[in-house]
Fold this sequence. Notes:
This protein has helices at about 1-40, 45-55, 105-115, 135-140, 150-165, 180-195, 255-275, 305-315, 330-345; strands at about 125, 130, 175, 215-225, 230-235, 240-245, 285-290. The chain is an alpha/beta fold.
Amino acid sequence: MDKEKGASSKKRVLRERKQRKCKQSNDGDDDVMNRKERKKRKPSDNPDADIQAREGPQKKKIKSDDVGGVQRKSERNTIPSIHTQPPYTAEKKKDPILYPFSKVDKTRLDVFSDWKNSRKAKQLTILGKKVDAKWFTTLETPGKSLTTMHVDTVVKLLSRREESHPHFFKSKALTLAETSFLREIDEYYSIFVDNKDEYEFPEEGFSQLFKEAPTNKILAPMLVKERLWMPLMINLEKKELIIYDLGKHFYTNKIKDKQVGAYAVAMPYIAQKKFGMKNDTKKSPFRISIINCIPQVDKIEDSGVFMLKTIECLAMSITTHGNLKNESIGDLRKKMAVDIFAELQND
């Protein structure tokens, strides 16, 4: 009996030793597998994630700029992308049609081309006058001189846009004049100089100005020697005439000064009688300034387009440098023709 108990006790001890050995062997295999996995594992792109993996889960730290449970990224020490920066002020509100140098609207162009190419194309009424496809062709074609009607039509188009979209026209004290404004001074100047204090210029050229709010500036188309168009800015408050000389290589300053000199002499009297400016007993001529650091036109026949675009930019407070180019004269002419067709026909 005692022998049987001793034998079973030995068997139990041997069985327990065998189980311990098996357990140690399994634990060693697990350690080997863990070491192999750690060697194969690539470092994470996020160092914080690796630390968290080694140290175990931690409680989330709530930053002071967390709002509504959504954590915002800090913007300190970061450079904003150029795509998120506010655009340049002058380019802030580019309208695809109103912006002076935008491409011609395709829908408008298609309708205009269909009308021009139609054999049954009828005359249109533009500013009370009949025009045909040939009138538009002259406006579109580079190297062809613009008529006074072309110029007045574009000025009228700009005036209409200023009324309907005033936020695009920054110069509130500026009034756009048509060609008749300076033409009347040219025609009647010889009569005026004989009796300056008593002479009254005809009303036609001045009736379009100052109908509503008074203004201090007049921007008018000027034609030198019946060939070269350029803008003339008349500043009534500063008593100054500014020539925007976009064709300085065509005529000398002496020729331009001679023509503008007549306007300088007449403006003090016109300002007092026509526009109700304060009485100036001396009525000294306005000062004349010339600005020629602006884009220059290559062909004198295209000067009308350069003048109108310069007037448009001055009215909208947009610089013309870098945008008004001779190589784009065809596109600028085309856009003028299409916009007139779309906005002023049957007017």
